[in-house]
Amino acid sequence: MLPPPNATSPMGTPPKPFASMRLEWILLAAVAIAGFIRMLYIGVRELWYDEVLSLLLSTTLRTGYVDPPDTPIALASYGALLQLPPFSGVTDFIAAIKPLLQGLVGREPHPPLFFLSQYLWLLLTGNQEISLRSLNLLLSLGAILGAYGMGKALFHHRGGLLLAALLGLNPFFWFHSLNMRMYCPTVLWVTLGGWAVLQLCYQRPSRPMRLLWYLLLTLAITGGILTYYLSALWFFALGGVILIKDRKHWWHYGLLALGAAGLAAPWFYWGLPQQLRNVDLKRFATDKSFLETIPHHIQGVLEVLGIQLLVGDWATSLPPGIVLAIGALVFLGLAAIIWHLGCLLRQESPALLVTVLVLACLPLLLMLAYDIFSGKSTLAWGFGRSAVFILPGLLLLVTAWVMNLSITWQKPMVLAILLLYLGLNMADMAGRNRQMFHQIAAASAASDSTLIAMNSKAWGHVLRLVYYLPQDTPVKLLATNPTMLPKALETLLSDPSESYDQVLWLEAERPVWKAPTESEAKTIRDDVERLLTAQYGSVEQRQLVGTMDLDRFRLGIYQKGA
Questions:
Q1: Among the four 112, 270, 504, 542, which has the fewest Cβ within 10 Å?
Q2: pLDDT, tens digit, for every residue of 44-73?
Q3: Residue 452 forms beta bridges with which residues?
Q4: Are 235 and 186 in contact (CB under 8 A)?
Q5: What is the pTM of this model?
Q6: Angstrom distance (rounded) from CA 196 to CA 217
């Protein structure tokens, strides 16, 4: 049985001011806690695979990276790639933007704005973990402010606080606000654009203020599309809201859309065509028939809803079946919320109901339709992050529902959701560690002559070794594709000119490229063990585990004379 509605207004005005005040204090505390735990946990975990790639691109030196050869190479020779090149003045700083853009169009599927902003941030703060992530932390606070504006435009101050608190403590957004990737800035532009449109459509500002909101919307559209291409689906949904509530000013919005297109035109002319030629989009494709893909698309929808509204980064550790089951429960919960909200608003405020449903559902449906008709599978890619732009709309739906409950039900419902979110976040950080490469660095420091033999050339694995091992450590790296490692190691160990006091055998569970079958992996492991134990003593075997498959390694420590 769903709670009864608020008896006063579809905008959620409470009948008891004192009770409302207490709820507002709870929401303010939740927003403050959201900011505090971001600062508390910003540097707790190591960089994950994609973050170190963002660092490489942001230093402008992506084009200088080459895969390690099948012979040992000094790990420190890669160190300069993860730092900004030296600048003699502003001219050099500006000139370095060109190789940054060239690195993007070579292999990356993302637009340049995030990497350009991170490039500037590197100059100001350096490349330590906390420094790298601090920009997104600040931008996440801006996104929370944008969420407050969206909620306030529809449901007054208390509605704004509720949406801000939901976004601030949402496990999915909280995780991405502590990562050096473009997903947090995407949410920033989405919320700012949503705030501008809802303010224009529902608050009817004066002409001078209207111009300022037009400017913010133009910047949000431009920033969103130049940060993450698929955010355009959110702005398309905002166009639907405009048609519902403010179509008499359609030509104003048409002009600002042209303005946003003009600001983005240089990249669309120069960069986007090159990306479409160079980027591997086949990884999203499927060879199944239309009917065969339907269950897969349904699964994608359920997983995205479950991950974004509840599971968060826990999805990388939970079995897929559990994530899918949680997604199904979340879907049923959203369906019940939509039905109940329809009962509450369809008579008193149908335009508000349609606005909320458009922003909550249309971006997701558009992405689903694209996947179905293009034969691709982008919706569930990357544990929900490919559809990050749908999150504010989903949380707006939850906000609309809670704000239209009676005040008796609002407080327990708000407390239940926020405490659940906070508990998931705290358990995530307390119970899921990512410190693999610090352990490897400590092991390498035990000897003056160390070789790291790794069964992967994947640049995320290589560059994390480079980032976490001290540059003055005399460590060499032998990184090959898995099937090549035994032969390369045999050749190396038979060469008298190559002598090491210690060998660290680092076996990646996911080599990323040219991964062997399970039986092949066992054969490779046995061959490497045989080669190493012929000349070295086995000192220790460790399982290094992080928060995802790309963080799983087996570390074997072998020393002479042991």
A1: 270
A2: 999 999 999 999 999 999 999 999 999 999
A3: 477, 504
A4: no
A5: 0.94
A6: 6
